[in-house]
Amino acid sequence: MKFPSPNMNDRIVAVGLLTGRDLGMLGPAFDRAWPVEETPTFNELLSAIDEADLKLQQPPTPTR
Predict the structure, then answer these.
(1) Alpha-carbon dihedral angle through residues 22, 50, 36, 25, given to the nearest 10 degrees
(2) Of 14, 47, 22, 18, which is closest to residue 35 (Cα–Cα)?
(3) What is the chain written as a DSSP string?
(4) Residues 6 or more apart from 14 whose CB is under 8 A from it?
(5) Count of CA atoms in the C-beta half-sphere (13 A) of 53
(6) What per-residue confidence (pLDDT) applies to 21?
(7) CA 2 to chain centre
(8) pLDDT at 62 over 60
(9) pLDDT tens across 1-59, in order?
(10) Which of 23, 51, 24 is nearest to 36 (CA)?
């Protein structure tokens, strides 16, 4: 699979973590994927995503 360099004029509309199988199911039209290596900071990234998701699910705090 060829991984193109990002064009700064393109707008990002989604970010996802997919397996190779997931990409295969999406088909050849899905051509912008960048591999993520397992590193110590990768788990920190996943934790930060989970934390942000939890904050979005909480009701907003009323302001006075």
Answers:
(1) 10
(2) 18
(3) ---PPPPTTSPP-------HHHHHHH-TT----------HHHHHHHHHHHHHHHHHHSPPPP--
(4) none
(5) 6
(6) 92
(7) 19
(8) yes
(9) 555 565 656 776 677 888 889 889 988 888 788 887 767 787 888 888 899 889 888 88
(10) 23
